[in-house]
């Protein structure tokens, strides 16, 4: 029987996904590699986000900032505006910080080894290993969610997430070939995304099913083993949409650190992941004729949030913020939560 890696690479050569940040297998076999800037940018975007969602954001970023030097020259606010809607906004702040360091300390060149890459902000074990393998042809043990699923099923590993990650790294270190390690890593990712899927895997089409223990036993859906989920608490608060006679909306900004750090918001009460915020019109930032609109519910990683939504009009400018005209509102660095709030109060706010 051919080796694990040989079977997988043969499959990848025929079935590799076409992705905007990727060099295809034919070019890969000729020694071409993906731009490390593109690999880094895509991997940061793909954390907690699907390929389908990331594609458009990736294209927008590389059109606005074609190189890491261009990204370093951007303002943090512009990066957050381009990131708005992608979620997990600390990634955008770290992206900008990382670009600054690559330009100022590495002359605009990405380090070529995992040891050096992991020292940069936003680059952890997984991302450093992925960049080193895909962009620089280094043999590294890359483990993401798709690869975890392939590894745990192939070996019927009973260790629950996240502890099983170390076993998966050991497995990957053993099967990753010296030749074409970047293509092999991407083949594992593609296998998990298209064949070894969380539900309804098409095991009969899998190139490595001959020695997959879970396939032999029919236990594929039992892996990876997940630790019991903790129940998410629900926090409450209020959000206040204030407009003026010109239809502009009053906006302010979250502190740079913490949840939604540095993002643009309408005024809200002081809810956090661990505490409720005040509710009711009496907690509004200014005195006005407030009308309650339909509340919204939003889910963060560790908690649910239920916000009352209040709307009022005033011709006086509050403090610590700015008026955003109707034709500029869509370009603000508004997270999805705030777009939900504003749409609840002003249903046509984001329509052309």
Q: Distance N terminus to C terminus?
A: 59 Å
Strand order, sheet with most strands: 1-5-4
Q: Report the CATH C-level class of the largest domain.
A: Mainly Alpha
Helix content: 40-55%
Strand fraction equals 5-15%
Biggest sheet overview: 3 strands, mixed
CATH domain fold name of the largest domain: Endonuclease III, domain 1
Give me the strand/helix succession.
HHHHHHHHHHHHHEEEEEEH
Spans where pLDDT lies below 50 across 5 or more residues: none
Rg, rounded, reads 24 Å
Structural class: alpha+beta
Number of strands: 6
Task: Provide mean pLDDT, rounded.
Answer: 95
Question: Can you tell me about this structure?
Answer:
- The chain has 352 residues and is an alpha+beta fold.
- The chain has 2 domains: 4-222, Orthogonal Bundle (Endonuclease III, domain 1); 234-345, Alpha-Beta Complex (Nucleoside Triphosphate Pyrophosphohydrolase).
- It has helices spanning 4-15, 25-29, 36-46, 51-64, 68-73, 76-83, 90-106, 114-117, 125-136, 145-155, 164-175, 181-194, 213-217, 336-345, and strands at 234-243, 249-253, 264-265, 291-299, 304-313, 322-324.
- Strands 1-5-4 form a 3-stranded mixed beta sheet, with helices on one face. Strands 3-2-6 form a 3-stranded antiparallel beta sheet, with no helix packed on it.
- The chain is globular, with a radius of gyration of 24 Å.
- The N and C termini lie far apart (59 Å).
SSE blueprint and pairings:
Elements: H1 4-15, H2 25-29, H3 36-46, H4 51-64, H5 68-73, H6 76-83, H7 90-106, H8 114-117, H9 125-136, H10 145-155, H11 164-175, H12 181-194, H13 213-217, E1 234-243, E2 249-253, E3 264-265, E4 291-299, E5 304-313, E6 322-324, H14 336-345
Parallel strand pairs: 1-5
Antiparallel strand pairs: 2-3, 2-6, 4-5
Helix pairs in contact: 1-12, 3-4, 3-9, 9-12, 10-11, 10-12
């Amino acid at each position: 029987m051919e080796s694990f890696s040989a079977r997988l690479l043969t499959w990848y050569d025929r079935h590799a996904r076409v992705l905007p940040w990727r060099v295809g297998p034919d070019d890969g076999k000729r020694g071409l590699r993906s731009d490390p800037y593109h690999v880094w940018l895509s991997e940061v975007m793909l954390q907690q986000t699907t390929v389908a969602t990331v594609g458009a954001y990736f294209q927008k970023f590389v059109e606005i900032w074609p190189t890491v030097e261009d990204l370093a020259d951007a303002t943090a606010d512009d990066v957050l505006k381009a990131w708005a809607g992608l979620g997990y906004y600390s990634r955008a702040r770290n992206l900008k910080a990382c670009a600054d360091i690559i330009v100022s300390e590495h002359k605009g060149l990405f380090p070529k080894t995992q040891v050096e890459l992991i020292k940069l902000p936003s680059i952890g074990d997984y991302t450093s290993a992925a960049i080193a393998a895909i962009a620089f042809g280094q043999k590294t043990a890359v483990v993401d969610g798709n690869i975890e699923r392939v590894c745990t099923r192939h070996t019927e590993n009973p260790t629950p997430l996240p502890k099983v990650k170390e076993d998966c790294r050991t497995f990957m270190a053993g099967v990753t070939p010296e030749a074409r390690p970047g293509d092999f890593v991407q083949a594992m990712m593609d296998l998990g995304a298209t064949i070894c899927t969380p539900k309804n895997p098409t095991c009969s089409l899998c190139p490595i099913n001959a020695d997959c223990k879970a396939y032999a036993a029919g236990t594929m859906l039992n892996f990876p083993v997940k630790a019991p989920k903790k129940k998410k608490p629900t926090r409450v608060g209020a959000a206040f949409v204030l407009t003026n006679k010109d239809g502009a909306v009053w906006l302010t900004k979250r502190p740079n650190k913490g949840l939604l750090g540095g993002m643009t918001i309408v005024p809200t009460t002081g809810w956090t992941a661990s505490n409720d915020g005040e509710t009711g019109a009496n907690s509004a930032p200014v005195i006005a004729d407030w009308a309650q609109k339909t509340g919204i519910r939003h889910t963060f990683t560790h908690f649910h949030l239920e916000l009352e939504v209040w709307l009022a009009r005033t011709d006086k400018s509050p403090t610590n913020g700015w008026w955003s005209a109707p034709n500029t509102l869509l370009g603000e660095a508004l997270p999805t939560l705030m777009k939900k709030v504003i749409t609840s109060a002003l249903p046509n706010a984001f329509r052309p």
